[in-house]
Design goal:
single chain; about 425 residues; alpha+beta; conserved putative lor/sdh protein from methanococcus maripaludis s2 fold; Elongation Factor Tu (Ef-tu), domain 3; 4 domains; 6-stranded antiparallel β-barrel; 4-stranded antiparallel β-sheet; about 30% helix; about 35% strand; elongated
């Protein structure tokens, strides 16, 4: 009786223990695998198109002197900020100053013939030229004498010879005036030629100073912010000549390379398959290796309307503000062009995805069993991965223990 009582007590104690999470495995079946699960989540995902390219200056110019000469002064070095209109270098102006003085004297000589001190912008009144006025007076005098001789001749108070002489003098005076007008016009033409020579000499004298070009919009910016604060300025990227060096206009001698880098242009190659998704005005995130984790905002400014048949890509130009000067011209950059937002994208924890032999799968926990679902991978983030496949919203995906699972394996969920 004592033995029987102990057996009953042991059975009672066994009945008071915790119930098993899964029933006993059927004959020949593997024991249930302990797994953890997480719910499949639906979230809005921003789509983007990846592209790579090179950063270029908003403007990039190579400057060369327009005249020959020897460099007598270098005013800017590599890395200097060059405000539009500032002088970069100076050439010896001696020859050009002498040429301008010679042209000035030549013009003055021609103007003196015309009785002028400066050449008017419009037409010159040749009737006011001294030689023409003198010829006009001679015509008037000859005409007066002819009229007198004619009246006397008609009254038979003067001979035919006197009449003919007066008529000849009148014609000679008229011809002299025509010649004076012609010569005056020739002098005017010569004066204009001398004026052009003086302007050319003056321009060459001014070209002895190589200055920073003035970009469009400079005057408007400078009027608002002042020349010292407007962002429309150049940076000296390269100096190619030195003091004492002889430069030539032909063949050209390049002297400076300047860039505007307060805004850069990223010219990126985009695969042709994304052509319908990329549009001017779309926002863009730009990254460079020099600043890992930093995203510089940009905007698609232009889009090439043609496809390169060799690379099967098209060019998209992204404008990237560079107020801090961190980005450098010529650098390699990656761009993510933001195209659209999908409001309902299925996502799972990255650990839920199992890859084998190039096939991606997700195991779903349902009724104590594991169901394998083949999926395609979309966008990847640190906390989640987009999956495309036959998965229902709210499904429980297995996040650990998958290495021991096959389709239909018995499972038990760990807390």
């Amino acid at each position: 009786m004592a033995v029987a009582g102990c057996a009953v007590a042991l059975l009672a104690l066994a009945g008071c223990g915790p119930a098993p999470e899964a029933g006993p495995a059927a004959p020949g079946e593997q024991p249930a695998v302990a797994v953890t699960v997480a719910p499949l989540a639906v979230r809005a995902v921003q789509r983007s198109v990846a592209a790579v390219g090179t950063l270029n200056g908003y403007d990039d110019v190579t400057l060369a002197p327009k005249v020959d000469g020897r460099v007598v002064a270098v005013r800017a070095e590599v890395g200097d900020v060059a405000v539009p209109g500032a002088v970069l270098l100076e050439l010896d102006p001696t020859d050009y100053r002498l040429a301008a003085a010679e042209a000035k004297e030549g013009l003055a000589a021609e103007l003196a013939k015309l009785g002028l001190t400066e050449l008017p912008a419009g037409e010159v009144d040749v009737e006011a030229v001294p030689a023409v006025r003198r010829a006009a007076v001679s015509v008037e005098d000859a005409a007066r004498k002819f009229r007198i001789r004619k009246e006397l001749f008609l009254k038979q108070a003067a001979s035919r010879d006197e009449y003919d002489v007066a008529e000849t003098d009148l014609r000679l005076a008229e011809a002299t005036k025509v010649q004076a007008v012609t010569e005056a016009r020739a002098v005017v033409a010569s004066a204009r030629l001398k004026k052009a020579a003086l302007d050319t000499a003056g321009q060459k004298l001014r070209d002895c100073k190589l200055a920073v070009p003035v970009p469009a919009g400079w005057e408007a910016w400078a009027a608002v912010t002042g020349p010292a604060f407007t962002p429309l300025r150049y940076v000296v990227a390269r100096r190619m000549v030195g003091e004492g060096e002889m430069v030539r206009a032909t063949p050209v001698t390049n002297a400076y390379r300047l860039v505007i880098d307060h805004v850069l242009k990223l010219r990126a190659a985009v695969p042709e398959g994304f052509e319908p998704e990329v549009h001017v005005g779309q926002a863009c995130g730009v990254t460079v290796d020099a600043y890992p984790g930093v995203v510089f905002p940009g905007r698609v400014a232009r889009k090439d309307p043609t496809i390169d048949p060799q690379s099967r890509t098209f060019q998209a130009e992204v404008e990237v503000p560079n107020a801090g000067g961190k980005l450098k011209c010529g650098g390699f950059a990656k761009a993510a062009i933001l195209t659209r937002t999908d409001p309902a994208v299925k996502t799972v924890p990255p650990a839920a995805v199992v890859t084998f032999a190039g096939v991606n799968k997700v195991f779903v926990a349902a009724g104590g069993r594991a169901k394998a679902v083949e999926v395609q991978i979309g966008t990847r983030e640190r906390e989640w991965t987009e999956v495309i496949g036959d998965l229902s919203v709210g499904a429980s995906v297995i996040t650990s223990g998958q290495t021991q699972l096959v389709d239909g394996s018995s499972i038990r969920v760990r807390e």
